[in-house]
Design goal:
Layout lengths: L2 H22 L5 H24 L6 H27 L3 H33 L4
Amino acid sequence: MSRSARYGAGLAVIALGAATAAARVPVGTGRDVLAGAALGLLIQGPLGWWVVRSVGSDRFLGAWMAGFLARIALLAVTGLVVVPALGWEPTPVLVTLAAVLGALLLVEGAAAMATTSQHTQTGSIR
């Protein structure tokens, strides 16, 4: 399985987990849980894919740093601007967003580690 396919599978698992969590929280909170999950998946999903695709290249550090800064900026902008502007409940949105971002970071690491292990075994890593 390619690293992009691994990352895509991880994204799907996280999206399914977030949808399941939104269905199980008290009435009225599910919307805020979905909002936090959607923000994380829509913003960090493509950036994580870029990081995974750049493993082993000269652009890896830049991609990783962009993803890191995007996570911090997304949490800050969501907490300070988006949540108050839209009248969302801050706790479910921000906790879900942070959980999704953390889970995506683990998926990136797993996809990158599997790729690095394959390259090491074949001797093709730089």
